[in-house]
Write a structure and sequence with these properties.
Helix 1 packs antiparallel against helix 4. The protein starts with a helix and ends with a helix. It is mainly alpha-helical and 219 residues long. The protein has one domain. It is built from ten helices and four strands, in the order H-E-E-H-H-H-E-H-H-E-H-H-H-H. The strands form two sheets. Strands 1-2 form a two-stranded antiparallel sheet. The protein has a two-stranded parallel sheet with strand order 3-4. The chain is globular, with a radius of gyration of 17 Å.
Length: 219
């Protein structure tokens, strides 16, 4: 009952209040981004949500659309501009996802939503478990290093969260996330192709994910 009824309602109420309280900050960031890029301050990307349903995640734009002479996007580190880097390093680029929560696409605590190609590269059993709950802004993997830990390890923490989800666990993860953001731990750039390669290797070689017992110890 908590996971499918109470949790979405609580998340929506908190997201609504946060949007009202943070509206001056959100407006300021939007204006600064528009002045910096002369384009929309928002970045939309297709992600996989609850029960495999696709949705558009909303973030503040942190990179330009600069391309090389062949029309291909430049590497992420070459497209990341100063304001975008500041937003990303302080996790402020995630704030527009409060809108995703109000729309019912996400909740506050849950596995981070992946792009479709990441899900397709992983064992179906783990994908089913991972997407049996709504994705969130933060989760167990985020307080253990975010994208600074191996892809398969993040999946392990996500599945472990699904098996242990509770109100008290969610409250604990929110407070631990706040601490991580304040001290700016675990923020690294992670190349999408590298993530996909890890998933493909895992699938092709039938490698086992780290055991939930091992992950529980570290939690």
């Amino acid at each position: 009952m908590y996971m499918h009824i109470c949790k979405p309602v609580i998340s929506s109420l908190l997201a609504g209040m946060a949007l009202v309280i943070l509206s001056p900050l959100l407006l300021t960031i939007s204006v600064l981004l528009f002045l910096s890029t002369r384009k929309s301050p928002f970045f939309l990307q297709t992600r996989v949500g609850y029960q495999g349903k696709l949705f558009k995640i909303i973030k503040f734009k942190t990179m330009t659309d600069a391309c090389d002479e062949h029309g291909r996007l430049l590497p992420d580190n070459q497209r990341l501009f100063a304001l975008g880097n500041f937003l990303r390093s302080n996790s402020l680029d995630e704030l527009p996802q409060l809108i995703n929560i109000l729309k019912g696409d996400m909740v506050i605590v849950g596995p981070r939503p992946w792009i479709p190609s990441q899900m397709e590269a992983l064992p179906p059993n783990y994908c089913r478990q991972r997407y049996s709950v709504r994705p969130g802004i933060t989760g167990m993997a985020q307080i253990h290093g975010r994208n600074g830990i191996p892809f398969c390890r993040r999946l392990c923490y996500d599945v472990l969260y699904v098996r242990r989800v509770s109100f008290l666990l969610d409250v604990s993860l929110v407070f631990r996330t706040a601490r991580k953001v304040l001290v700016r731990e675990g923020i690294q750039q992670c190349n999408e192709a590298f993530q996909n390669k890890l998933g493909e290797t895992l699938l092709q070689n039938d490698l086992s994910l780290p055991s939930t017992t091992e992950a529980t110890r570290s939690f």
